[in-house]
Automatic annotation (TrEMBL):
One GO cellular component term noted in the UniProt record for this chain: cytosol
Source organism per UniProt: Chauna torquata (Southern screamer)
The protein's role, per its UniProt record: Important for normal spermatogenesis and male fertility. Specifically required for progression to the post-meiotic stages of spermatocyte development. Seems to be necessary for normal expression levels of a number of testis-expressed gene transcripts, although its role in this process is unclear.
GO biological process terms held by the UniProt record: cell differentiation; spermatocyte division
Alphabetized PANTHER family for the sequence: PROTEIN TOPAZ1
Main location: cytoplasm
UniProt-annotated location(s): Cytoplasm, Cytosol
Keywords, sorted A to Z: Cytoplasm, Differentiation, Metal-binding, Spermatogenesis, Zinc, Zinc-finger
C3H1-type domain mapped to chain residues: 36-64
Alphabetical list of Pfam families matching this protein: Asp_Glu_race_2
A molecular function (GO) term: zinc ion binding
Protein known as: Protein TOPAZ1
Gene: Topaz1
Keyword Cytoplasm: yes
């Protein structure tokens, strides 16, 4: 026992603001009564200052296996009270529990550190050594600062009898994987000199320091796999992901056997992946990746390892719907310029996942995290690849890609980002890869939705490109939208494009056939078409009859235009038809040069019949026939 006689305070609860014993007991009692215990636990032992005084108690004095959270809560309560008897009981509980149980997810590293510090403040050095020995056995080490506090405590009170146990415990902690910096060694040696210990004890610490120096500052150190794995676990318990990254680089540099390096890499990836499944702040992978790249900026093998581990961590976050954290992993890979889309995952199902699936998952994470640009970046980075000889995928991957891209398009449309939406549509499954057995005709609806959105926003550029793409892929264009595009182009004075699409619309059957009527010098125009479409029909009519109009006997010819009603339209439905008449007059006026129409009669179908003045028609042909002949004389 390393306690000092005559130096201990008379009251064990010296840290309470009010030092009267009855008030201290009352405060402690109130705190102890707040512990929530299961029924089988001894309430006298756990919830009173005196403890259980029964010779044989039928209730539990040690938390049950699986009740680690209760164990931590009890220890935390005792630490907060700071009473010497309770602290000794805390040591008993810790030692008995962890002799039988391995630390689990509920183990609180801070509780361990606080307990050790509290024991030192209450001069319970022997109990502190008990705790340290147990931590070595369960491979759950305290913070380096706590170990330094133990050395400081022994040195400040000049407890020379404790030095052999102190040195022995120090060696056990180092062998278990505790990692010290060189300033820590120097400080420990300074304290040992202060204690005037033997040279043999000083040399023990110096030898350990020399061993660390050989391992961590030269490139040819002997790889100690067990020590590295212990240090990795220590970093995990401390949540020191930066140090884990540095340790990985050092280990990889000194490792001579590829099997050991592979085991180490898989172990780290497993740790990072499992930690991602816990609901805690921060993204350990990011700190780890930064440390690796900082210590090994140009090593391609390390970059590949980071990329593969990142895929596994990303998918782990995706499984638990942690979209923001998953995005942080992807942002880090992007920041470090690691092209993960050409890599496979490192552990689990990700090792067998197709490239299409990995890209789908990454894009989905960006999408669910609210980053459309991020989702599109991942897809571009992968060159929108789905199925390929080197990267085969199954039908489920193709379907998921289809659904993902459609979701992306709808989000872009809601934000009026039409060009981005069109880029995504062009890369739907079936367009990029001939091995994709996808019927692209099914995309007609979503393409037409884009064109309609562009039409409403008067975005003629994207709608024209979309129509061109659809026509090249034999995807059906909605006739109403195609006519709207023709009208929009004409009203924007983009007549050349309007004429091109009008000819296409004619060939697709968008308008009633004209060929038979044209040769009889009669032009039937549906009343519902726009003034642009009417003018284009008139242009075609003029070019088709150009030889007759320009012949010497043309004065006797009659060119008629009939404003056709719909088959189901009755005579009483005149408002829409009247608007069509006005559009026909407007079409003649916007022509360059102007054309003149003369009302002739109303036929038996109650349709207005007009004659086209030959003089204006002749003038129009004289000025426009050179280009018009090339445009309208087609098969």
């Amino acid at each position: 026992d390393y306690r000092l006689s005559g130096k201990r305070p008379s009251l064990p609860l010296q840290n309470y603001e009010d030092s009267e014993p009855w008030k201290v007991d009352k405060n402690a009692k109130q705190i102890l009564e707040m512990i929530d215990l299961p029924r089988k636990y001894c309430r006298f032992y756990f919830m009173t200052l005196r403890g259980c005084e029964r010779a044989k108690c039928w209730f539990w004095h040690v938390p049950e296996q699986g009740h680690e959270k209760i164990c931590m809560a009890i220890l935390k309560t005792y630490i907060s009270i700071k009473e010497s008897g309770l602290l000794k009981r805390a040591v008993q509980i810790f030692v008995r529990y962890y002799r039988e149980v391995t630390p689990g997810e509920d183990f609180a590293f801070q509780v361990l550190n606080d307990l050790l510090i509290c024991l030192l403040k209450n001069y319970l050095l022997q109990e502190a050594f008990q705790i340290l020995n147990v931590t070595v056995q369960i491979n759950t080490l305290p913070a380096v600062d706590v170990l330094l506090k133990v050395f400081e405590h022994v040195a400040s009170l000049n407890i020379r009898d404790a030095v052999p146990t102190l040195i022995s415990t120090f060696c056990k902690l180092i062998d278990a994987g505790m990692f010290l910096e060189f300033e820590h060694f120097n400080y420990i040696i300074k304290l040992l000199h202060q204690l005037q210990v033997s040279s043999q004890e000083i040399n023990t610490v110096l030898n350990i320091k020399s061993r660390f120096q050989e391992r961590h500052f030269t490139g040819n150190w002997l790889f100690d796999f067990n020590l590295v794995m212990a240090e990795i676990q220590h970093c995990k318990l401390k949540n020191d992901w930066t140090k884990m990254g540095t340790l990985y680089v050092n280990a990889r540099t000194g490792c001579e056997h590829s099997d050991d390096l592979q085991k180490l890499s898989l172990c780290i990836a497993e740790i990072l992946t499992r930690d991602s499944e816990k609901d805690r702040p921060g993204v350990p992978f990011c700190d780890f990746a930064d440390a690796v790249i900082k210590n090994s900026p140009c090593n391609e093998a390390d970059r590949i390892f980071i990329g593969r581990a990142g895929i596994s961590v990303m998918n782990s976050y995706r499984k638990v719907l942690q979209w923001i954290k998953g995005r942080k992993v992807l942002d880090k890979l992007h920041e470090l310029q690691i092209h993960f889309t050409v890599l496979k995952g490192l552990i689990g199902a990700e090792r067998l996942a197709s490239r299409c699936q990995i890209v789908n998952n990454a894009a989905e994470i960006f999408l669910k995290a609210g980053s459309l640009d991020g989702a599109t970046w991942v897809l571009r980075e992968s060159e929108w690849t789905t199925n390929a000889p080197l990267w085969p995928c199954d039908e489920k991957d193709i379907l998921n890609r289809h659904n993902l891209l459609c979701s992306l398009v709808h989000k872009y449309l809601r934000q009026s980002l039409y060009r981005q939406a069109f880029e995504v549509l062009q890369n739907l499954p079936g367009f990029q890869n001939s091995s994709d057995t996808v019927d692209v005709s099914q995309y007609s609806c979503i393409f037409n939705k884009l064109i309609n959105a562009c039409f409403e926003s008067k975005n003629l550029g994207v709608s024209s490109s979309a129509v061109d793409f659809m026509l090249s892929k034999n995807i059906a264009v909605d006739f109403f939208l195609l006519r709207g595009l023709i009208t929009g182009l004409g009203r924007s004075c983009l007549w050349s494009k309007a004429r091109t699409y009008y000819k296409t619309a004619l060939s697709l059957g968008c308008y009633p056939p004209l060929q038979g009527s044209l040769h009889h010098k009669i032009l039937p125009i549906p009343f519902y078409v726009s003034e642009v479409e009417m003018l284009l029909a008139i242009e075609l009519f003029l070019v088709s009859n150009a030889s007759d109009i320009q012949s010497p006997g043309a004065a006797t010819q009659t060119l008629q235009i009939i404003l056709k009603r719909c088959e189901d339209q009755t005579v009483q439905n005149n408002s829409d038809y009247q608007a069509g008449m006005e559009r026909l007059i407007l079409a003649a006026r916007v022509s360059d040069p102007k054309l003149f129409l003369k009302h002739v009669t109303v036929n038996v179908n109650m349709e207005e019949v007009y004659s086209l003045e030959l003089t204006s028609a002749l003038k129009w042909l004289q000025e426009n026939m050179k280009w018009a002949g090339k445009v309208w004389l087609f098969q």
